[in-house]
Amino acid sequence: MQDWTQLRAECDVRDLDRVCAIFTMVDSRIMVEDPRDVEQLDSCYGELIDEELTRPDRPAAVSVFIPAEKNFGEIADFIRQRAETEKLEIKLEAVGRSEAEWADAWKKYYSPLKIGERLTVVPAWDKEYRPEPGDLTVRMDPGMAFGSGTHESTRLCARLLERFMKPGALVLDVGTGSGILAIAASLLGASHVDACDLDPVAVRVARDNIMANGVSNARVFQSDLLAAVQRETKYDFICANIVADIIIRMAGNVGEYMADGGLLAVSGVIETERERVVSALDAGGLCAVDAVSEGDWLAILFEKPADKK
Predict the structure, then answer these.
(1) pTM for the complete prediction?
(2) In this structure, CATH architecture of domain 4-107
(3) pLDDT tens, position by position, 228-247
(4) CATH 3.40.50.150 domain position(s) in the chain
């Protein structure tokens, strides 16, 4: 019999569809607890239904069941980060696990991982790892922020960064999470990296990781997408490893922050969302020039043509 851990999020019933959308990015087989379903049954079967289920203030909930061989902690952090980005209030719990077990659950799955031709992510506590000649090592302790390198969206964005970012580039990392992509950009030769996140915990974690990697040319600050980014700065390369709906939200003005010929790598997109994302950024004056995929996940590269203002 396979071991599973139930990851459950309570939310306001009005947000249920959006929370379900985030959970289906992890697994299409989700369990939904919608109090409105119980209300419909109550009219016929009221005497047979537990009173707890008919409480008027009972929240909705969504669950996904994580098999033992999956990186539970990374999945939990992914859901938490996406909910934070979409400004959804959720109460996330691991049914059957203590907080201490949850906080450390991902560590047993976290080992050195090559995420590009030269980029390798190594746990901060791994003292035995020895890099291959030419490898660039990113030391990470994600803590409670998304981005250890084990999720497909992070790896795909790192792959585009490694392939297309030119040395000396001015880089912006939107939704930096643990700071993994900002650190990678610095190691790959960026002249300066700005990294921002809405979550103050992520900002703190990213700063700690950047300092631990000896990166001195990166700045981390709190921002709701591009709100706190200076418009006067024109970036050669922008990373946005977030979700499709949030990418679409900033599609109309992200080009204003890009240098002529600048590149934007967006990740956290699933195949069924490709057309919406490409259409939104095309309407914003950017052209899709490349894409990489892994399973159902995509990262898409866009360019700002030199004649676009």
Answers:
(1) 0.70
(2) 2-Layer Sandwich (3.30)
(3) 999 899 999 999 998 888 89
(4) 111-303
